[in-house]
Amino acid sequence: MNVHEYQAKQLFRDFGIPVPNGKMCTREDSVREAAQELGGDTWVVKAQVHAGGRGKGGGVRVVRSVEEAEKAAEDILNLRLVTAQTGAEGREVRKVLIEEGVAIQKELYLSMLVDRASNAPMIICSEAGGVEIEEVAAKTPEKVLQEPIDPALGLRTYQTRRIAQALGLTGPAVRQAGKMLSDLYRLFVEKDASMLEINPLVVTESGDLIALDAKLQFDDNAMFRQKDVLALRDVEEEDPLEAQASEADLSYIRLDGNIGCMVNGAGLAMATMDLIQYVGGAPANFLDVGGGASAASVEKAFRIILADTRVKAILINIFGGIVRCDRVAQGVAEAAGNVELKVSVVVRLEGTNAAEARTILEGSSIDFVVANNLRDAAEKVVSAL
Ligand code: GDP
Ligand code: MN
């Protein structure tokens, strides 16, 4: 789960990590009052969307008067923000963050994630932070330090020293980094974060360390014990179909292709997507209806796939191990009967009561394409496009 920058910064404050003072404003709020309350003579107006790269996309503006702040907020709220992470269609901006301006001496990069290779949380940092960090990582990887943390020992002092050195810190910022890193690690672990990124982490002109940007992602599987984090969820920022699917307890992820997939079991779903690619197609989604796919969940899944207008053909691949194929077939036939079906549906049902399932599908008023095996199904769905 993702949260907005202003929410991540509030969590940072709660854990004692320095961030600029700021106020979130929607279209209804007075940006003038927010800027006046913050005080000072420089402000930064920042688009609040669940996507990075806002700076380059025109979603971050530094302003020098209350009037300019109002104008910048209005512009950004009227923007369809296109960044490297939003895709060409861009994102509607519903919220902006008004912050006190910070005089920057140096922009650094710092992040934490769960690293698969070392099976541990890892801190990644670079002295060359800012909006070009992707290029730094690609062209000069030696400028990026990776520091895995043993979860049993926690973050060690020698590690924070190594990180402070890699960041090129001197003076009071070294001690500040030590405290900040241990507070960040505490936040990361206590809140079940899966990713934390500060880009830029800055050294101010007075030599202090402050998090100018904040990105946090949380482990969805831990949300049952993180009610206060879950309360930060902004459904409007999520893909509407993914949000519907999560309501219905379906694992659904939108992809770029045009073949809708409905499969039971994550492993089978991955194999199905691979096979579609292998025979020249492109899956529109990953969708696992669960090992014991019920007729009701099949119907819900079917509706979600059909609501995606890019879908030109559907492949249903169900292995009836726990669930009986005939019941799935009934669910599929019923769901298909309840919606206006404009695309071909290829069905591969194998396992318990597969023969009965085939009879149900063939007897249905809908023209299902029944496949004999998985390879056949993938080929049929690609030729149905
Ligand atoms: P992102 O592009 O979505 O990651 O947005 P950021 O919050 O990282 O902002 C992009 C860039 O705007 C930063 O790298 C800074 O250069 C600049 N910026 C953000 N806040 C301030 C500020 O308070 N003062 C100044 N001078 N620049 C800022
Ligand atoms: Mn940033």
In short:
The chain is of the alpha+beta class and 385 residues long. Helices cover 36% and strands 25% of the residues.
Task: Tell me what you see in this structure.
- With 385 residues, this protein is an alpha+beta fold.
- It folds into 3 domains: 1-20 and 103-238, D-amino Acid Aminotransferase, Chain A, domain 1 (2-Layer Sandwich), CATH 3.30.470; 21-101, ATP-grasp fold, A domain (Dna Ligase, domain 1, 2-Layer Sandwich); 239-383, Rossmann fold (3-Layer(aba) Sandwich).
- It has helices spanning 5-14, 31-38, 66-77, 133-139, 157-166, 172-190, 227-230, 240-247, 266-278, 295-307, 325-338, 354-363, 374-383; strands at residues 22-26, 43-47, 60-63, 80-81, 91-92, 95-100, 104-115, 120-126, 144-148, 193-204, 209-211, 215-218, 251-254, 259-263, 285-288, 313-320, 344-351, 369-370.
- The strands form 5 sheets. Strands 7, 8, 9, 10, 11 and 12 form a 6-stranded antiparallel β-sheet that branches. Strands 1-6-2-3 form a 4-stranded antiparallel β-sheet.
- Helix 2 packs across helix 3 (66-77).
- The longest helix is centred in the middle third of the chain and has 19 residues, at 172-190.
- The radius of gyration is 25 Å and the shape is elongated.
- It starts with a helix and ends with a helix.
- The structure holds guanosine-5'-diphosphate and manganese (II) ion (MN).
- Guanosine-5'-diphosphate binds next to strand 2, strand 3, strand 7 and strand 10.
